[in-house]
Every structure is written in structure tokens, then in C-alpha cells.
């Protein structure tokens, strides 16, 4: 079962996606997601110029060996571009192997450990009234766990608040939340940590008063706080019993979480911009987090993320895989198969893709009573319509960035 073709497909149905398609000499195909939001073409170049030529002629069954070859032979290891490229190859090979076996991928990963995956969606609003409407809308869509992001008085635009205007102007597609914007330069947002720290606990108090104690609530700090600010937020949110508080401090310095952990019992999640098990080594060993936020797409694929999650399981740390709309349907399917199979599944982030995206990527997952299931088609259960993909060429898009009131660039 040798690889005879490796095609990198770039398409922008509602947003940019990069997909690797591998074909074997016995006619099987496999898909892998290589989308790196705002830096998509760097992974395209890495794949086309450096990886694809190495894949032709290799045995598609040798998944672990191919992973180690691509990781170690580069010498320049890790990093989001490299690890997204390796992830795409890895998932495409798992897709092929599962099709060859005639099984859905989760069966090859050990079989189902549960009947479905609890998923959370993104509610947001500039005011509490808008936020409550958004929470109700998500409950009507079936969500049983909800991330809450809110506007902060005095700040114009802020991470996590659904931007209808952007999408109505560009595509007419309503995303729950999609920060990347098409255009030649990143949009500028503003930020004030003290205002944020004062405001957020009042919002969670209001949400608990409105929706009661049962609903699992999550919140994302998006790496903007110092350790002591993060500790203060975790403490001030304790009465509202969060499922998790995410990305409180910049991810480059994992040991910052030690101080946060000393001060609060609010569960912590981090890792969406981590790439390897080495990024997690200290914070898993010291039990500084409760949830691993990595996506299959950005962490070297199923082969490597499963190793991270197996390591985490020794410390009662669970999965909380990244799943916003810049994880393509291929990346989401891979996450669902892995999440169904592992024992230490926690929750899956799930935002709906738009109609154009769903026409490019035909999917077999199900969404029932707030639970995802990858379906039982052999492989990962996603097909890519190449003609449909060809209708939507790449468009330059950037994630926004932040400045403080005095003009200083701040973490976004
Ligand atoms: Mg996050």
C-alpha cells in the first residue's frame, strides 16, 4: 500500500482551510487538516516544498515510522508550521488505514469508551441581555455546556464576541465567533486588564442568577493576564463554579500557572497553541492544569496528541480539544474519533461550520442532545469535493491584535 500522490488543497468557502489528500496505489485516499489560522500558506509551502516529495513511495501502513521520520529528520523540530504539516500526514494515514480495515477510525484506536462526546459552544454578547439571548440560542441548538465571553465597558471590540457585521459584509455567513478577518492587515482591538477583571465576575454572577447552578460554564482569558492577575480572576470566579478557566497567562511560560494554581480552585485549561508533549511536560507532571486544549491539527496529529493525553491521564488530566471554526471538518472528525476512544475525554469545543464549508467537506458526524459522534463510515468519515473546493480560492486573512490605551502592543 504505497503512496502515489499527495495533494495540498487550499480552499476558502467561509474561511481558509488547508487539506492534505494522500492517495495509495490500491486506490484508497486519506485526508488531513493542516489549517493554521492567519498563517495558512506557510504550512502549504512546508508541505509542498519539503514533505510531499518525501511521501511518494512510502508504505502508508507505517504511521508511527512516518511520524518519527518527518519529526526527527527535519532536525529543526516543533513549532506550529512543522507540527500542523506532520499532523496532516498523520491523520491522512490513519484515515487510509481505517478505510483499509473497513472500520471507523475510533475502532482502531481501541474502540468507543462512551456513547458520545459532550461539546460546548460559544455564547457571547456586548451586554448581559445579548449574552443571555446567545446562551438561550445555544441551548435551543442542543448545547449542554457553554463558553461565556462578554464585552467590557469602555472597550470597543474584544476577543470572543460574535461579529455579525464582519460576516454579513463579507460572506453572509453567521459564525458564532470567528476572529480572523479578510484583508491586507490585522484589525486592531483594544484592551484593559483592570476593567476586564472588574467586569467578568459580575457577568458570571448574572449568568448564574439567570440560568441556575447546573449549566456547565467555561471562559477563555486568551493569554492576557500576568500570573497574579490570573490568580485574582480564578479566585473571584470560584462562587460561579466554572467548568474551566482557559488560557489565563501567555503560553510561552507554562510555570506561570504554578502561582495561579496556588491561589484558586477554579479548574484550568491551556494548550491550544502548544505543539508537542514537551510543552506540557512540566504542567502535567506538576498537575498545574485540568484540561489539555490541543487540537489534533496543531499537535502532530492523532499519533502525538494521543501520547500527550495518555501522559495526562496518569495525572487525572482530561482532554478539552480545541475546535473553533478554523479547525476544518477533517480536523474535527479526527478529534471526535480520538475523543470517543480515549478514557480521559473531558469535553470537545464545537462550533458549527457554514453551509459553504459543509458543501466542500461532506461529513458523517452526528449531533444529538448536545453530544457529538463521528459516525461509523470506514476512515474518519469525511470526503472533500475537489470541484466545490476549487470555487473558493485563498483569501488573505489575519487574526486581530491588541493595543492598550497608550498604544502599547498587548497579547491578543
Ligand atoms: Mg483559548
Automatic annotation (TrEMBL):
Keywords tagged on the record: Lyase
Class of the enzyme per the UniProt entry, highest EC level: lyase
InterPro entries: D-mannonate_dehydratase-like, DgoD-like, Enolase-like_C_sf, Enolase-like_N, Enolase_C-like, Mandel_Rmase/mucon_lact_enz_CS, Mandelate_racemase_C, Mandelate_racemase_N_dom
Signal peptide feature range: none
Any Pfam family: MR_MLE_C
Span of domain Mandelate racemase/muconate lactonizing enzyme C-terminal: 128-267
Gene3D superfamilies to which the protein is assigned, alphabetical: Enolase-like C-terminal domain (3.20.20.120), Enolase-like, N-terminal domain (3.30.390.10)
GO molecular function: mannonate dehydratase activity
Keyword match Manganese: no
E.C. number(s) listed in UniProt: 4.2.1.8
Highest taxon of source: Bacteria
PANTHER family registered for this protein in UniProt: D-GALACTONATE DEHYDRATASE-RELATED, STARVATION-SENSING PROTEIN RSPA
Protein name per UniProt: Mannonate dehydratase
